Amino acid sequence: MNINRPLPKPTASPLPDIEGAAAAAGLLDVGYATLDSPAGSLLLAATPQGLVRVAYLDSAGEEDAVLEQLSTRVSPRVLAAPRLLDEPRFELDDYFAGRRRRFEVPIDWRLARGFGRRVLEATAQIPYGAVSTYKQIACEAGSPRASRAAGNALGANPLPIVVPCHRVLHSGGGLGGYTGGLERKRTLLAIERGQQTLDQ
Question: Which member of 28, 48, 74, 194 has the lowest number of beta carbons within 10 Å of its beta carbon?
Fold first, then answer.
Protein backbone atom coordinates (compact mmCIF):
# COMPACT_ATOMS: atom_id res chain seq x y z
CA MET A 1 0.00 0.00 0.00
CA ASN A 2 1.27 3.45 -0.93
CA ILE A 3 0.77 5.43 2.25
CA ASN A 4 1.98 8.59 0.50
CA ARG A 5 -0.91 8.61 -1.97
CA PRO A 6 -2.93 11.83 -1.49
CA LEU A 7 -6.38 11.39 -0.06
CA PRO A 8 -9.27 12.34 -2.33
CA LYS A 9 -10.65 15.81 -1.77
CA PRO A 10 -13.92 15.76 0.09
CA THR A 11 -16.88 16.74 -2.09
CA ALA A 12 -18.55 19.93 -0.94
CA SER A 13 -22.03 19.25 0.31
CA PRO A 14 -24.52 21.93 -0.73
CA LEU A 15 -25.90 24.14 1.99
CA PRO A 16 -29.39 23.14 3.02
CA ASP A 17 -32.16 25.22 1.44
CA ILE A 18 -33.49 26.62 4.70
CA GLU A 19 -35.52 29.31 2.95
CA GLY A 20 -37.26 26.82 0.65
CA ALA A 21 -37.85 24.29 3.42
CA ALA A 22 -39.31 26.92 5.75
CA ALA A 23 -41.60 28.26 3.02
CA ALA A 24 -42.75 24.74 2.06
CA ALA A 25 -43.53 23.97 5.70
CA GLY A 26 -45.49 27.20 6.13
CA LEU A 27 -42.95 28.50 8.63
CA LEU A 28 -41.74 31.53 6.68
CA ASP A 29 -44.00 34.36 7.79
CA VAL A 30 -41.52 37.19 7.10
CA GLY A 31 -38.54 36.97 4.78
CA TYR A 32 -35.95 39.70 4.48
CA ALA A 33 -32.94 40.75 2.43
CA THR A 34 -30.74 43.81 2.09
CA LEU A 35 -30.00 45.99 -0.92
CA ASP A 36 -27.29 48.57 -1.56
CA SER A 37 -28.73 51.58 -3.36
CA PRO A 38 -27.94 55.22 -4.25
CA ALA A 39 -30.06 56.11 -1.20
CA GLY A 40 -27.98 53.89 1.08
CA SER A 41 -28.36 50.39 2.42
CA LEU A 42 -31.96 49.13 2.57
CA LEU A 43 -33.61 46.25 4.37
CA LEU A 44 -36.61 44.78 2.55
CA ALA A 45 -39.09 42.44 4.20
CA ALA A 46 -42.04 40.58 2.73
CA THR A 47 -44.82 38.27 3.86
CA PRO A 48 -46.78 35.88 1.64
CA GLN A 49 -49.17 38.82 1.09
CA GLY A 50 -46.52 41.21 -0.21
CA LEU A 51 -43.82 43.72 0.67
CA VAL A 52 -44.32 44.80 4.27
CA ARG A 53 -41.23 46.86 5.13
CA VAL A 54 -38.52 48.96 3.52
CA ALA A 55 -36.05 50.41 6.02
CA TYR A 56 -32.98 52.60 5.71
CA LEU A 57 -29.97 51.10 7.49
CA ASP A 58 -27.58 53.77 8.71
CA SER A 59 -25.81 51.67 11.35
CA ALA A 60 -25.26 48.01 12.22
CA GLY A 61 -27.75 48.12 15.08
CA GLU A 62 -30.61 49.35 12.90
CA GLU A 63 -30.99 46.04 11.09
CA ASP A 64 -31.51 44.26 14.40
CA ALA A 65 -34.02 46.92 15.48
CA VAL A 66 -36.06 46.53 12.28
CA LEU A 67 -36.06 42.73 12.57
CA GLU A 68 -37.16 43.01 16.20
CA GLN A 69 -40.01 45.29 15.17
CA LEU A 70 -41.09 42.82 12.48
CA SER A 71 -40.91 39.98 14.98
CA THR A 72 -43.12 41.89 17.42
CA ARG A 73 -45.62 43.45 15.02
CA VAL A 74 -45.90 40.83 12.25
CA SER A 75 -44.58 37.42 13.33
CA PRO A 76 -41.65 35.97 15.30
CA ARG A 77 -40.93 33.69 12.33
CA VAL A 78 -38.54 36.01 10.49
CA LEU A 79 -35.86 34.54 8.23
CA ALA A 80 -33.28 35.82 5.76
CA ALA A 81 -34.88 34.90 2.43
CA PRO A 82 -33.18 36.65 -0.49
CA ARG A 83 -35.13 34.78 -3.18
CA LEU A 84 -38.44 35.93 -1.70
CA LEU A 85 -37.23 39.51 -2.15
CA ASP A 86 -35.87 39.10 -5.69
CA GLU A 87 -38.73 40.97 -7.38
CA PRO A 88 -38.73 43.99 -5.02
CA ARG A 89 -34.93 44.21 -5.32
CA PHE A 90 -35.11 44.07 -9.13
CA GLU A 91 -37.82 46.75 -9.19
CA LEU A 92 -35.84 49.01 -6.87
CA ASP A 93 -32.67 48.54 -8.94
CA ASP A 94 -34.66 49.53 -12.04
CA TYR A 95 -36.13 52.54 -10.23
CA PHE A 96 -32.72 53.82 -9.16
CA ALA A 97 -31.41 53.31 -12.70
CA GLY A 98 -34.27 55.42 -14.08
CA ARG A 99 -35.90 52.46 -15.86
CA ARG A 100 -38.98 52.11 -13.64
CA ARG A 101 -41.67 54.67 -12.90
CA ARG A 102 -44.17 52.48 -11.07
CA PHE A 103 -43.74 49.66 -8.55
CA GLU A 104 -45.79 46.55 -9.22
CA VAL A 105 -44.91 44.36 -6.25
CA PRO A 106 -47.88 43.51 -4.02
CA ILE A 107 -48.06 45.43 -0.75
CA ASP A 108 -48.88 44.09 2.70
CA TRP A 109 -50.35 47.11 4.50
CA ARG A 110 -50.58 45.58 7.98
CA LEU A 111 -48.08 48.01 9.55
CA ALA A 112 -50.37 50.96 8.73
CA ARG A 113 -53.90 51.37 10.09
CA GLY A 114 -56.76 53.84 10.08
CA PHE A 115 -56.02 57.38 8.95
CA GLY A 116 -52.32 56.57 8.55
CA ARG A 117 -53.11 53.85 6.05
CA ARG A 118 -55.45 56.15 4.12
CA VAL A 119 -52.64 58.72 3.95
CA LEU A 120 -50.21 56.13 2.61
CA GLU A 121 -52.70 54.77 0.09
CA ALA A 122 -53.27 58.33 -1.20
CA THR A 123 -49.51 58.89 -1.33
CA ALA A 124 -49.06 55.70 -3.37
CA GLN A 125 -51.16 57.31 -6.11
CA ILE A 126 -48.84 60.31 -6.65
CA PRO A 127 -47.34 59.80 -10.12
CA TYR A 128 -43.62 59.45 -10.73
CA GLY A 129 -41.99 62.85 -11.10
CA ALA A 130 -44.97 64.69 -9.60
CA VAL A 131 -45.35 66.09 -6.09
CA SER A 132 -48.23 66.73 -3.71
CA THR A 133 -48.58 68.58 -0.40
CA TYR A 134 -49.36 67.48 3.13
CA LYS A 135 -52.68 69.36 2.89
CA GLN A 136 -53.67 67.65 -0.37
CA ILE A 137 -52.83 64.23 1.02
CA ALA A 138 -54.84 64.94 4.19
CA CYS A 139 -57.82 65.91 2.01
CA GLU A 140 -57.52 62.75 -0.06
CA ALA A 141 -57.34 60.71 3.15
CA GLY A 142 -60.64 62.25 4.28
CA SER A 143 -59.44 64.82 6.86
CA PRO A 144 -58.75 68.19 5.16
CA ARG A 145 -57.58 69.85 8.41
CA ALA A 146 -55.23 67.05 9.42
CA SER A 147 -52.09 68.18 7.59
CA ARG A 148 -49.93 67.66 10.68
CA ALA A 149 -51.34 64.19 11.29
CA ALA A 150 -50.74 63.37 7.63
CA GLY A 151 -47.13 64.46 8.10
CA ASN A 152 -46.81 62.19 11.13
CA ALA A 153 -48.25 59.26 9.15
CA LEU A 154 -45.79 59.88 6.34
CA GLY A 155 -42.95 60.07 8.87
CA ALA A 156 -43.93 56.58 10.05
CA ASN A 157 -44.23 55.19 6.50
CA PRO A 158 -43.10 51.53 6.70
CA LEU A 159 -42.51 51.42 2.93
CA PRO A 160 -40.50 54.49 1.87
CA ILE A 161 -39.60 54.79 -1.82
CA VAL A 162 -42.22 52.20 -2.84
CA VAL A 163 -44.91 54.30 -1.15
CA PRO A 164 -43.38 57.60 -2.29
CA CYS A 165 -43.66 59.88 0.73
CA HIS A 166 -40.65 61.76 -0.69
CA ARG A 167 -43.11 63.26 -3.23
CA VAL A 168 -45.00 65.14 -0.48
CA LEU A 169 -43.86 68.72 0.17
CA HIS A 170 -44.99 71.75 2.15
CA SER A 171 -47.63 73.89 0.43
CA GLY A 172 -45.02 76.61 -0.16
CA GLY A 173 -42.72 74.16 -1.93
CA GLY A 174 -40.33 73.45 0.98
CA LEU A 175 -39.12 69.90 1.37
CA GLY A 176 -40.75 69.25 4.74
CA GLY A 177 -39.42 66.22 6.59
CA TYR A 178 -38.42 62.72 5.61
CA THR A 179 -37.87 59.57 7.63
CA GLY A 180 -34.56 58.88 5.89
CA GLY A 181 -33.31 62.46 6.13
CA LEU A 182 -33.60 65.38 3.73
CA GLU A 183 -30.52 64.39 1.70
CA ARG A 184 -32.26 61.13 0.74
CA LYS A 185 -35.44 63.03 -0.12
CA ARG A 186 -33.42 65.28 -2.44
CA THR A 187 -31.76 62.23 -4.02
CA LEU A 188 -35.07 60.53 -4.76
CA LEU A 189 -36.64 63.68 -6.18
CA ALA A 190 -33.55 64.28 -8.30
CA ILE A 191 -33.74 60.75 -9.73
CA GLU A 192 -37.35 61.33 -10.71
CA ARG A 193 -36.58 64.72 -12.24
CA GLY A 194 -33.76 63.49 -14.43
CA GLN A 195 -31.05 64.40 -11.89
CA GLN A 196 -32.33 67.94 -11.39
CA THR A 197 -31.86 69.14 -7.84
CA LEU A 198 -34.56 70.60 -5.65
CA ASP A 199 -33.59 73.43 -3.32
CA GLN A 200 -34.87 73.36 0.23
Answer: 194
Is 139 considered catalytic here? no
**Domain hosting residue 141, numbered range:** 114-192
34, 93, 102, 141, 168 from 127: Cα distances, Å = 26, 19, 8, 17, 11
Q: Which of 35, 43, 165, 169 is catalytic?
A: 165
Distance, CA of 121 to CA of 150 (rounded, Å)? 12
Q: What is the pLDDT of residue 33?
A: 97
Closest CA to 74 of 49, 110, 106: 110
Which string of b and e fits 165-190 if b means at least 16 CB within 10 Å?
A: bbbbbeeeeebbbbbbeeebbbbbbe
pTM attached to this predicted model: 0.83
Report, as ranges of residue numbers, the positions in the chain whose pLDDT lies below 50: 11-16, 196-200
* 32 in the same domain as 75: yes
Across 3-150, the runs of DSSP E, i.e. the strands, are 30-37, 40-47, 50-57, 78-80, 132-133
Number of domains in the chain: 2
Q: How far, in whole angstroms, is CA 18 from its chain's centroid?
A: 23
Q: Quick one: pLDDT at residue 96?
A: 94
